[in-house]
Amino acid sequence: MTLEVKVSGLDELNASLEMLGRFGDAPLTRALKSIGQAVVGQTIERFENEIDPDGNKWKRRKVETKKTQGRKILHGETGQLKRVTYIDGKGFVKIGASVNYGVFHQFGTKKMPARAFLGINKDDYEEITEILTNQLRKHFGTNN
Fold this sequence. Notes:
Layout: H1 11-22, H2 25-49, E1 85-89, E2 92-96, H3 102-107, H4 122-140
Antiparallel strand pairs: 1-2
């Protein structure tokens, strides 16, 4: 089972990606790898701050047990859920949880509230824009 979140409304970013792609695989691959690393970093920060991509605090646990007392939400005993990864390939980058049960936390269930951690927010968008701008500048040899 995989969780895939598609981001829409990023026409300007998509146009920049397409432009990089016209100059061969290398500039686009570098940009996508950097984007993957940046979004993974932002997502890990969400785990530390216990917030969703929009900055809303995650719902608290209904019951604290000895096992969960003092532990951050979604950190678990193994910490596997917060091991967010990315995969980049020819013309794409995918960011996701390294465990299958991430989908239940992202969207919630009948008995468990959603605690979204994947998504693109304004800070992510700005960082992605900066990455693409820098890659385009490198390709064209400009520093402006």
